[in-house]
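Look over this record as teaching material.
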Amino acid sequence: MKTLLKAVLFSLSLGVASLAVAQEAQNININSADAEMLIQLPGIGKAKAQAIIEDRETNGPFSSPEDLSRVNGIGDATVESLRDQITY
């Protein structure tokens, strides 16, 4: 019984670790992502992805999610929806 319990606990710990890695892998770095990566974000199409890239080339890197609002067409609602899906 102890062996079975150990096996179950070990399996659960691996599952939790895998979930944490998967969540981190889904986050997109808005300072280094290319257009193809950026369009994977909800509400970001080709035009906005290109605008993000052009903005960071012109104005420097984004230092917070709120900095995305400096990109034409990205407002507070979009910033909020992306907050947990981006890194910078």
Summary: The longest helix spans residues 2-26.
